[in-house]
Design brief:
The chain is of the alpha+beta class. It has 9 helices and 19 strands. Helix 2 crosses helix 5. The longest helix has 23 residues. The radius of gyration is 33 Å and the shape is globular. It starts with a helix and ends with a strand.
Amino acid sequence: MKRIVFFLCISFLFSLQLSAQGWLERAGQRVKDRVVEKVENRIDKKTDEATDKVLDKAEGSVKKSGKKNKQGQQDAEEAAETDENQDENAAPKGKTAQKLESVSAYDFVPGDKILFFVFFCQDAIGDFPALWTTNGSGEVKTVNIAPGKWFHMNGDDAVYCYTKEINFPDNFIVEFDIIPEKNFQYGICLTLYQEDPENPKEVNDDLFPGLRGLRIVPNSDGWETNGYESDPNKPWLDGKGSKNPLIAEELNHVILWIQKRRVRIYHQGQKVLDMPTNIYADTKFNRLLFSGWDRNCAPLVSNIKITTASPDTRSKLITEGKLITYGITFDVNKADVKPESYGTLKSIADVLTENPGVKVKITGHTDSDGDDAKNLDLSKRRAESVKNELVKNFGIDASRLSTDGAGETKPIAANDTPANKAKNRRVEFIKL
């Protein structure tokens, strides 16, 4: 008798499983496996007990088969959750592997000494800028998407040479803003090079000028670098990056961080290239030029700045008790901290975290351009914004931070040149 009941049970189970097939498919493979497993286990028990329990389970499955797929999916998810909670260390059957994600910190920290700064404020609209020369054409303009004056390098296959020597240190940073025109592909080159003292050129239109140097090419689809020597037998030291290329008809902020032979490039708050040996040893940069061969690019360039490499934040703030930084930046006449300030803020937050007993006063400073009262108010609001960033994004206790603003009243340089004005636009941290 038991044998007959057993086979009847199996037959009935099979028919019920066919009826519930739609629900099982919708519920997912995990639920189906669990149901089969339970059936097999119960068959191993006494036949009478197996019959009752399997029938109850099957009846519930048939009822569920008529419900919406949404409910079936919910049941599947709950079953999966239950299975995972039973054994946290075991990899659940059929579990999809977690998608790989990588995070690279924005590690750029601007220098604390300005060597060179040009934003063409003293050049007349429509003129070719002073202290530059070219074998093509160009003029100073304004644009509707960004403040200030811009050098429009609109010559065809032309070079744009800064006429004075710049004594670059081993570690330095070059920053500039660039707006490519609509249909650009190959962008424009920035070349830093060591001039040949036996063959100096006011307008150097060589593809690889001087004794040795570094050529940086921002393209519409990526970045390219070429470290070179004048010796034709020595190969280029090439670097390439496709991440975050220049955007046409938009303001792009480009940063080059040179540490002896190492080259890092940052664009729009992201590191786009990092080459540890991109420059020939013993290169002593002293010249700068832009060059272009894509007439569709004809970029507008401004805010060219050269600074020394990043300061020792820990030493200056903790040991010396005062840190002056140009790495916390703001838009013109605004107090919102720009994204590229992250590296500087992080370095300061790290020092404060490592020294929990230290309190600091944050003071904003401006140059002398504009109204005195407005500059004072702006400097105070900028200091408060810096405090808020440190509290909100880096977890620094607000009670350790006080703020103030000095406007234009405490310059550290005369407000007579663009470079000196840039020195006065700063944020100071004073250890209390």
